[in-house]
Design goal:
This protein is an alpha+beta fold. It has two domains: 219 residues, Ribosomal Protein S5, domain 2, CATH 3.30.230; 82 residues, no CATH class. Helix content is 39%, strand content 21%. Strands 1-2-3-4-6-5 form a six-stranded mixed β-sheet. The radius of gyration is 24 Å and the shape is globular. The termini are far apart.
Length: 335
């Protein structure tokens, strides 16, 4: 396929054969990125988060260079590699199944690179392709591009490094075929219309990459594995949401931040037990179990997020009382 005026090819099956999934992305004449993904067979016990690790490895040999000092081994990853690892993590992490607790590791290795072209977006594309080809439960397909502008103000897909400064725009956009998952970057001040135009321009390129990955996955992908999911007890979830709905709504609408946090501190398991009636014997037994504390506070956190989303989307107001377009007063003092 052609992306940003250069040919992009996605391959699998030749390298990293022991991984759950792997993809080799070639872009233009010099850019080659290999990504391998692995997942543990069993979930990690005793955790309430998804253990995902993303690494972006960019060594000097990718540019045809060798460290000139006495020690030839390269040290810790540079800041650019750390930031590129985070760019892989952010659009991918939310798309894994809720409650999936298996250790997953994504390693994107730059094998060859044009010194004037950044490989971070290729790492996202390679990671999305490797996950699509693997047996790891991951239903969406992710890709990313970088957007800049030329001297005439026209959008450029994956610009060269000298074009970053001349165009005044450097935005990395990642997404799926039907949604934008991440936008980050910098540049000169531009109109909102121009920025949204850049996002739409990037999303059109992302759709092309996603379509190619999905075609490859249908031909060479593995069947997705079955996996255990950590579920919150449905009876407990229904009871907590009903019993604490008004408390969460009132706390979220407390303008003062410290008072808002203090209101949430009062919502404890002891308070829940005090609200249990004789009809709630099943819920009482669940609340008294030592392992229920994490589930209880997880439900409250989900309620807080749902309430915040409803306030912003439906009521057009933020927790501190400001409207979406309203900026808080700025106060400065020089010592």
């Amino acid at each position: 396929m052609t992306v940003g005026g250069r040919t992009m090819t996605i391959e699998t099956g030749e390298l990293a054969k022991q991984a759950n999934g792997s993809a080799l992305v070639r872009y233009g004449d010099q850019n080659v990125v290999l990504c391998a993904v692995t997942a543990s067979d069993k979930p990690r016990e005793g955790i309430d988060f998804f253990p995902l690790t993303c690494d972006f490895e960019e060594k000097m040999y990718a540019a045809g260079k060798i460290p000139g000092g006495y020690i030839k081994r390269e040290g810790r990853p540079p800041e650019h590699a750390v930031l590129s690892s985070r760019q892989i993590d952010r659009p991918i992490r939310p798309l894994f199944p809720e409650g999936f607790r298996n250790d997953v590791q994504i390693v994107a290795t730059v094998l060859s690179i044009d010194p004037e072209l950044d490989a971070d977006v290729l790492g996202v594309c390679a990671a999305g392709a490797a996950l699509a080809l693997s047996d790891i439960p991951f239903d969406k397909t992710v890709a990313a591009v970088r957007v800049g502008r030329d001297e005439r103000g026209e959008y450029i897909c994956n610009p060269m490094l000298p074009q970053y400064a001349s165009g005044g725009m450097d935005i990395v956009i990642a997404g799926t075929a039907d949604a934008v998952m991440m936008v980050e970057g910098g540049g000169n001040e531009i109109d909102e219309e121009d920025f949204l135009g850049a996002v739409e321009f990037a999303h059109a390129e992302i759709r092309k990459i996603v379509k190619a990955i999905e075609q490859l996955a249908r031909k060479a992908g593995k069947a997705k594995r079955e996996y255990p999911v950590a579920h919150v007890d449905p009876d407990l979830d229904r009871w907590v949401r009903k019993a604490f709905a008004k408390d969460v709504a009132k706390a979220m609408r407390t303008v003062d931040k410290q008072k808002r946090e203090a209101a949430f501190v009062t919502l404890t398991i002891d308070e829940a037990l005090a609200r249990c009636t004789k009809k709630d014997d099943t819920v009482r037994a669940l609340l008294e179990a030592p392992s229920t504390a994490k589930e209880f506070y997880k439900i409250l956190k989900a309620m807080e997020e749902d309430e915040l989303r409803a306030m912003v989307v439906d009521e057009k107001i933020r927790p501190d009382g400001r409207k979406p377009e309203e900026v808080r007063p700025i106060w400065c003092k020089v010592h």
